[in-house]
Write a structure and sequence with these properties.
Elements (H helix, E strand, L loop, with lengths): L13 H18 L1 E5 H20 L2 H10 L3 H14 L8 E8 L6 E7 L10 H36 L1
Antiparallel strand pairs: 1-3, 2-3
Helix pairs in contact: 1-2, 1-4, 2-3, 2-4
């Protein structure tokens, strides 16, 4: 059987990587931030954000889907009751990766991955709509002014012809 060539895996095979990422996600939800290598943090981010999205739904099916990956019931309960309400208004980007330097032993790049639990401050969108409305109002006035100017010019041309 040919060896899978989808890219390098963390640890051994794909099953081991899946188990490792699920356990890291459980630790992330339990401690709110963990320090790991940069590569593992980048691989963990989509897994954790998907689980938070399920937790935001909050129904029984979403809870069972999360419990397939995270085996610790207390972590699942914390995810659904504490973390999900804090990120309810957030549209995405539930985690943040901060590079922290290099490990002393093997010089591996380290990073901290943490949950973003701050409240969302949406940017105002009304500023773009207001100038567009003013431009629409000014355009008919300019057309009327041109029509008024053309009418006397046409009359003077007729008067010259007589």
């Amino acid at each position: 059987m040919p060896k899978p060539n989808k890219g390098p895996r963390l640890g051994g095979g794909p099953a081991h990587e899946r188990l490792m990422l699920n356990q890291m996600a459980a630790q992330l939800f339990e401690h709110k931030r963990i320090q790991t290598t940069e590569t593992k943090a980048k691989r963990l981010q989509p897994v954790a954000e998907r689980l938070v999205t399920f937790a935001k739904r909050g129904d029984l099916h979403a809870r069972r889907r999360v419990m397939r990956q995270i085996l610790d019931n207390s972590v699942v309960h914390e995810l659904f009751t504490e973390i999900a309400p804090l990120v309810a208004e957030r549209q995405g980007g539930y985690t943040r990766i901060i590079k922290t330097g290099f490990r002393k032993g093997d010089n591996a790049p380290l990073a901290v991955i943490e949950l973003v639990l701050e409240p969302v401050n949406p940017k105002p969108k009304a500023k773009k709509a207001a100038p567009a409305a003013e431009v629409v109002e000014e355009a008919p006035a300019a057309v009327e002014a041109e029509v008024v100017e053309e009418a006397p010019a046409a009359e003077t041309a007729e008067e010259k012809a007589e």
